Amino acid sequence: MTRFNLILLLVMMTSLDGCAPLDDTVDPEGVQEKMRSLSPGKEDRAACMGRLTPDEVDEVIELSDPKTLVDEYDAQKRVNRIAQLFREAKDPRGLFATVYRLITNRAVESVDDGDYEYPDWARSLITEFARRYLHNVHAHLTDGDITGSWEKYYDIAQNCDVGRGRTLGVAIAVHLMVDLPKTLYAIDSLPEQREDFVLFGDILLEIFPQLIIDVKKDYDEDVTELLRGFFFGEWVDRFTRAGTMTAFIYQGVRLKAWRDSQNYRKFPRRVVNLEVHAAWGAAEVLLAHLDAVDVL
Questions:
Q1: Cβ partners under 8 Å of residue 97, min gap 6
Q2: Residue 88 and residue 52: Cα distance in Å, rounded?
Q3: Contact by Cβ (8 Å): 196, 122
Q4: Burial class (CB in 10 A: 0-12, 13-18, 19+), 49
Q5: Could you say which residues of the chain have pLDDT below 70?
Q6: Which of 73, 196, 277, 284 gives 116 a disulfide partner, CB atoms 3.0 to 4.6 angstroms apart?
Q7: Tens digits of residue pLDDT in 220-239
Q8: What is the pLDDT of residue 34?
Q9: Residue 79 belongs to what domain range?
Q10: Structure confidence at residue 45 (pLDDT)
Q11: Are 285 and 9 in contact (CB under 8 A)?
Q12: What pTM does this model have?
């Protein structure tokens, strides 16, 4: 398959209307071995990377307890501290935390600036979206009930043979394609809030250049190709405006998440869930291929 066809596959995948349980235990790849702060038997894999100390693990466990999360400001504080702990330890499991820190900070700022018609809905979105992320961090470190898609991220994050571009891509795909539609449904998102949702995404696009800078600074990894539309992002931008390919793919994925969230209101949840996880599975396979051919 050519690189061009790989990109087309991703774009077509994001346009699926799909009809998705909030049962996060559905795992298209089957049940995998549970991961811990450093999983037994994987010490050899992690020899090439940093890791949290036992005291730092304990702190992240406390910070990531989803049951004690209060509001969007509490989420912001926790996500920033978790990102800091992973960053200072040079622990690659924190790749997504670096990204999510910037996303959460900009999201809270936009609500405080009065950018939305439904600010209470926006605050709930930030809080509950963070709760899903924190739940899986907590489950990963405590051998708890982690979802299959996040387990995949933590698995490959500890594998020195997997490129960090792929690792981060998997986390972003889980976040946007699996957690986002389920969060939107859980907070009772209504059709009239769709414009706020689209605006939310447009505002978050502003931080993409900083994401590239911070991931490079924190983990010495250049994720420009990943965040600007894989290999063809730069090519497309030459003929349009800078960031066009990223905006196209990013908002396409987000709009699919919105459709999936609304489908949860209309169809059996298990049916919609199959579509959600199938789409994520396709993205994961694509990222693995791009990593194998050194595109990421």
A1: 79, 82, 83, 86, 87
A2: 9
A3: yes
A4: middle
A5: 1-48, 228-248, 296
A6: 196
A7: 999 887 876 644 445 445 54
A8: 31
A9: 3-292
A10: 47
A11: no
A12: 0.81
Query: What local confidence, expressed as pLDDT, does residue 253 receive?
Result: 87
Residue with tokens 């946007």: 176
Token representation of residue 296: 């990421």
Distance CA(50)–CA(160), nearest Å, equals 11
3-state secondary structure the chain: CCHHHHHHHHHHHHCCCCCCCCCCCCCCCCCCCCCCCCCCCCCCHHHHCCCCCHHHHHHHHHHCCHHHCCCHHHHHHHHHHHHHHHHHHCCHHHHHHHHHHHHHHHHHHHHHCCCCCCHHHHHHHHHHHHHHHHHHHHHHHHCCCCCHHHHHHHHHHCCCCCCHHHHHHHHHHHHHHHHHHHHHHHCCCCHHHHHHHHHHHHHHHCCHHHHHHHHHHHHCCCCHHHHCCHHHHHHHHCCCCCCHHHHHHHHHHHHHHHHHHHHCCCCCHHHHHHHHHHHHHHHHHHHHHHHHCCCC
Q: Which residue has the tokens 């972003």?
A: 172
For residue 285, the model assigns a pLDDT of 87
Tokens of 8: 């087309």
Q: Residue 49 and residue 273: Cα distance in Å, rounded? A: 35
Angle, alpha carbons 233-239-242 (nearest 5°) = 55
| pLDDT for the residue 19 | 43
Q: What is the residue type of 108?
A: V
- Structurally, the chain folds into a number of domains equal to 1
Measured between alpha carbons, how far is 74 from 82 in angstroms, rounded to an integer? 12
Contact in structure between 226 and 249 (CB atoms under 8 Å):
no
